[in-house]
Write a structure and sequence with these properties.
The protein is an alpha/beta fold. It has 14 helices and 14 strands. Pfam families: Glyco_hydro_1.
């Protein structure tokens, strides 16, 4: 096979093109229709910022982009682009407001019925994340989140409730969003109320164990309740390169990658890997397993999904470990790469690399469920008199990454689909800003809360529509 400039880019038939959002970054209506507070409602500054006792007006996520009330308008725009799949999440605290109730909130269940019906009307398959950074706040404060084993039962009740409710509407599910992000953001990712600097490794990895058991339980429940569905895990992928060829740097990379591979290894292979057992021994960590846990973990996922935004470097030389920025996980900057406005290094080839690494390791289908460029967009009036954004920088970013996806397909990697992050502008998880925009659709809302909430098609909207129409053949090497 030639890799010349004229080679046609081939994506498999039935490739699931689409986009992704999360309930907490888009829906708004944070305290309406029976919804309880989530951890997001008290984190007005994003992932690493301080938390408050109660929701405050400066939290952009409380209103989001009002997707709750405008979803019909937005789904119609997704259909206009030709989406085959739409990834969103269910807000756990819409279904169980406190998280530990016996009975669900019917208003919350009905909202997602209506949303999924709207998607299916246009032939768009919902891809639904059960827990996307929005643990019910009550479970966080009362139980210390996933540190407490009781959360397994609460999560199982929630998962079973939504599986039974939507079994005829949703055929693609994810258990936890970026599950490995708990290592860096224990409150947002794991609902752990204990401050990060006071959280012991023992409690952190015990919480991770509880999540892994709960995830495997959700896989088992999904297979029993919706036999024709597929359910996957979701991992924050961040390929790590050695800063130099020094073997010390290569071993430093191996240890760093193990921290993230661990989550995929348990989900895909059904047991704890030897390198983690060594890590536990050397760090005095003793995972408290109950009878049945090891058997439950054998319920492995049908596919591996992941986010990809950035790669990093690692070194054993402490003097070279300057601060780099990334999506939760910071690392040593790569001297060969440029960075976005937010300091995230841009590495399209890293996506091909991680696709190959995951597929070689697991031999399971892969799904790229987040990728995109956060940037400051300027709304202008186009030549046709319509308001738009000339976001050629976003088109270039996505084109270059999708070309690498096509290369991975040529490599023999089995890839189910691609849902670009923030297909319509949403509030950023990392910074809680709206000026950091990812979408093909511009939402007229700003960080000071002003704006009309009107939606406008960016230049990238028309570009992506053509990519989907041609199944990737319009991409440029």
């Amino acid at each position: 096979m030639s890799n010349s400039q004229n080679t046609t880019l081939n994506f498999p038939p039935g490739f699931l093109w689409g986009g992704a959002i999360a309930a907490n970054q888009a829906e708004g209506a944070f305290d309406q229709y029976g919804k309880g507070w989530s951890t997001q409602d008290v984190a007005p500054k994003g992932v690493m910022g301080p938390i408050t006792e109660a929701p405050t007006e400066d939290n952009m996520k409380l209103v989001g982009i009002d997707f709750y009330h405008r979803y019909k308008e937005d789904v119609k725009l997704f259909a206009e682009m030709g989406f085959k799949v739409f990834r969103t999440s269910i807000a756990w605290s819409r279904i169980f407001p406190k998280g530990d109730e016996q009975e669900p909130n019917e208003q919350g269940l009905q909202f997602y019925d209506d949303l999924f019906d709207e998607c299916l009307q246009y032939g768009i398959q919902p891809l639904v994340t059960l827990s996307h950074y929005e643990t019910p706040l009550h479970l966080s404060k009362e139980y210390d989140g996933w540190v407490n084993r009781k959360l397994i039962g609460f999560y199982e009740r929630y998962a079973e409730t939504v599986f039974r409710r939507y079994k005829d509407k949703v055929k693609y599910w994810l258990t936890f969003n970026e599950i490995n992000s708990i290592l860096e953001a224990p409150f947002m990712s794991g609902g752990i109320y204990t401050p990060k600097d006071q959280l012991s490794k023992q409690d952190l990895y015990q919480a991770i164990h509880h999540e892994l058991v709960a995830s495997a339980s959700a896989v088992k429940l999904c297979h029993e309740i919706i036999p024709d569905a597929q359910i996957g895990c979701m991992i924050l992928s961040m390929p790590t390169y050695p800063l130099t060829p020094n073997p010390d740097d290569v071993i430093a990379v191996m240890k760093s990658e193990h921290k993230n591979y661990f989550f995929g290894d348990v989900h895909a292979r059904g047991k704890y890997p030897g390198y983690m057992k060594r890590y536990f021994r050397e760090n005095g960590i003793e995972i408290q397993m109950e009878s049945g846990d090891e058997e439950m973990l054998l319920n492995t996922v049908d596919f591996i999904s992941f986010s990809y935004y950035v790669s990093i470097c690692e070194t054993a030389d402490e003097s070279k470990k300057q601060s780099g920025q990334g999506n939760l996980f910071s690392g040593v900057p790569n001297p060969h790469l440029e960075a976005s406005e937010w300091g995230w290094q841009i590495d399209p080839q890293g996506l091909r690399y991680v696709l190959n690494m995951f597929y070689d390791r697991y031999q399971k289908p892969l799904f790229i469920v987040e990728n995109g460029l956060g940037a400051v967009d300027e709304l202008i009036t186009g030549p046709d008199g319509e308001k738009t954004v000339e976001d050629d920088y976003r088109i270039q970013y996505l084109n270059d990454h999708l070309v690498q996806v096509a290369e991975a397909v040529e490599d023999g990697v089995e890839i189910m689909g691609f849902t670009s992050w923030g297909c319509i502008d949403v509030v950023s998880a990392s910074s809680a800003q709206l000026k950091k925009r990812y979408g093909y659709i511009y939402v007229d809302r700003h960080d000071d809360g002003s704006g009309t909430m009107e939606r406008y098609r960016k230049k990238s909207f028309h570009w992506y529509k053509e990519v989907i129409r041609t199944n990737g053949k319009s991409l440029k090497r």
